Each structure stands twice: as C-alpha cells, then as structure tokens.
Amino acid sequence: MNIRPDDFVLEIGSGHNPKARSDVLCDKFIGDDEQRGGAIVTDRPMVEADGQFLPFADRAFDYVICSHVLEHVKDPAQFIAELERVACRGYIETPSEIGERIYGWHYHNWVVNLVDGCLMLRKNEKNSQFGQLFHRLAVTDKHWKRFHITHHNLFLVQYEWEEKINYKILLEHESALDLECPDTLDRLTASDNHVQNEWLLLLKSAVPRGIVSRAKSFLAQLASQNLLSKVAKGKSRQTKTLQEILVCPQCKGQITWEAHSLHCKMCEQTYRIVDGIPRFTF
Ligand SMILES: [Zn+2]
Ligand SMILES: [Zn+2]
Description:
CATH topology of the domain at 9-189: Rossmann fold
Bound molecules: zinc ion
Distance between the termini: 32 Å
Largest sheet: 6 strands, mixed
Low-confidence stretches: 227-234
Helix content: 25-40%
Radius of gyration: 20 Å
Number of strands: 13
C-alpha cells in the first residue's frame, strides 16, 4: 500500500485485525463477531457505520483501506462512490473469482476480478462447487496451506486507486475470468508472483506466532501514539479528531455533539454514542 508518512488513514471493515497504519476505524457490526476471526478491536477513534452511508466529510482522509468488504456490500456503486468521496486514494482487497470458486462464502454478494486495472463485479451465485473441502484443507493440510500462501495472488484481488475507482458491474452470466486465454493463464501463473511469498512463508515458519502477534500489537500501539512517523520523519503525523470530520451519514449535513448522542439539524436524525463510539447504523 502506497501510504505516505503524513497521510490521514481510514480503514473500513477493520474488525478484529485493523492495520497498524489506520488512524480511524469504521465497522458495520461492532457488536457481532460472527463473520470475523476474533473479537472486534476498538483501540483508536472508531465509528459504527454502513460503508454505503459513511459519516465523514468530503475528502476527510488521504487514504482509505478497504479489505474484504466490497464483496459483502448490497450496492457496490454507492459504496465505491462513498470511498471516492471521503478519500483521495485507497486500497481495495477482495477474494478473487478463483478464491470464491474454490472456497465459496455464502455471505458474499459479489464475485470480483481485476482485469487490466479494472474491478469486474458479478453477483455471487453462491453455488459452492466444493462445499467445505478447501476450508478444511486450509486448516488441516500443510501442503495446501503452503500453496495458498505462495500463490496468494490466485486467491486475492488487490487494487490500489487514486482519485477514481475503475470498476464495472457485469451481468449475472458474464465472467471476467477466461481460463482458456493464454494471457490470463500467464498472468495467473507468473513465477515472480511467488518469490516474495516464499520469503513470507519462511519468515512465518521461522518466527513463533506469539512473537508475531506481540510485535503487531506493539506496532499498532506505536502507530496510534504517532511515534512511528515521529521517529521516521522527525515530525508528527497529521491527526484530526472525530469531531472535526464527522457529518450526518444520510444527508451529509453538520452534526452537533451531545453527551451521549449526535444530532443532525438538517434531517432531524439522532445517533447514539455507546462506549465512546458513535453508532450510525440503524
Ligand atoms: Zn468477505
Ligand atoms: Zn442528516
């Protein structure tokens, strides 16, 4: 991710594993851990909101991270428009069509491919070909686990954007993935994709898991205290408070802060603040 040292960064769908570099977190399901791998992390400024109705002012952020969210949304056009509205640049990651065909997640609404720098979205038919087989192998079989890590570009779409998100919504029967096409096969099987991942795998196998997770939480702590960029650049990263950047998610009007709620004068909506977290879901 091409995040600059002084970028102000939003992460959508941060869940149990927010990135160290994220300044503000946004998640739709704070009270429900069912679709994630652990308990929600709320260690920095955070809001509960739907990505299709973001409660942030236009261009409040320099960069927005959105990992494994796009495939879940109801209306991708509206969601993408919101990303472009609140940030200048960003990163989107989703499972690829190959990942979706092999694993199959019944709660994904969209199948995503990246073709020539364009995100191609198609409604997920949710007819999982292999049931739970590969989910099981990912846990029990070290060879499959290894293949998944060394070939993660097969299973993932990773897309970085600036100003505009290039995307297309396809008809249900259309697929952007032509596995008969030699160019597609060359791209998917290019061996230089794997070199970096071999190193990652080696590193992962050499360093005990406890140390990795402790190092991660230490880095997150450093990042949240702004120390990382101070060390790196000799100046503090820009920060804004939630008060400065929040707007009404529905009408984008100004909101006023009260002790336990937020109020929009323009559309008369009131939003709760629970445990210090503004709740914009309804
Ligand atoms: Zn997902
Ligand atoms: Zn409003």
